[in-house]
Design brief:
9 helices; Alpha/beta knot; 2 domains; 246 residues; alpha/beta; 60s Ribosomal Protein L30, Chain: A
């Protein structure tokens, strides 16, 4: 079954990443800089482009396609070992994101986008009780799904044990974590574990973490949305690993 990639930026990034696209559908008379870039990339890669009525795009992808839809070969998951191999190939300490029961596709998409810009080597999600790689996730990721590999595992607790055996520190994020995030060492090989909307980390996953961290809160609301918290923590990793203090 084909994947439907909807939206100008997701389709453009799919082309830039060399994704195997069967066809691109563009709304009749739709023009613009990004559309022109999509058409040029499609032409250079031999991807057929068809002009169609917006109503046809609405039927395929709802009302958030921005006039552009691509039909692509189904996006597959990778193995967790592939994420570690990617870090080794880059000569970098592993930097992975694990999501525990994150069911909102918009949050998953936003986390994917932040993971790509922060240089994470990939995401790990469970097979059950989580958002999958749906068109809604792809739209929210705004093209990042083309660059961030996602591993899906049967059991997060068992995955954590394997990651520890590979030398990674497993750091959970919670509103009442035992350590301050900005005072923790994120230069080590690590996996950041974030819990789902409302329920946070499951007890078993929390128990497998080496420790938990929290973000400082100065306002009256006691925690950030999971996607926002993930972004802050990922960029703390970037700051510690790559930003000079000289």
């Amino acid at each position: 079954m084909d994947d439907i990639i909807a939206g100008r930026n997701p389709v453009r990034e799919a082309l830039r990443a060399g994704r195997n696209l069967h066809k691109i559908l563009v709304a009749s008379r739709l023009e613009g800089r990004v559309v022109g870039e999509i058409l040029a990339l499609a032409r250079s890669q031999g991807v057929p482009v068809q002009r169609v009525d917006r109503a046809a795009l609405d039927r395929m992808a709802g009302d958030r396609h921005q006039g552009v839809v691509a039909l692509a070969a189904a996006r597959g998951y990778v193995e967790m070992e592939d994420l570690l191999s990617l870090a080794r190939e880059k000569g970098e300490p592993p930097f992975l994101i694990m999501l525990d029961q994150v069911e909102d596709p918009h949050n998953l998409g936003a986390i994917l986008r932040s993971a790509e810009t922060a240089g994470a080597h990939g995401l790990i999600i469970p097979r059950r009780r989580t958002a999958g790689l749906t068109p809604a996730v792809a739209r929210a990721a705004a093209g990042a799904l083309e660059y961030v590999p996602v591993a899906r595992v049967a059991n997060l607790a068992q995955a954590i044990v394997k990651l520890k055996q590979e030398g990674l520190w497993v750091i959970g994020a919670e509103a009442d974590g035992i350590r301050e995030a900005f005072a923790s060492d994120f230069t080590v090989p690590l996996v950041l574990v974030l819990g789902g909307e409302g329920q946070g980390l499951s007890p078993l996953v929390r128990s497998k973490c080496d420790f938990t961290v929290k973000l400082p809160v100065r306002g009256k609301i006691n925690s950030l949305n999971v996607a926002a918290a993930a972004t802050v923590l990922m960029y703390e990793v970037v700051r510690q690993r790559y930003c000079s203090t000289d």
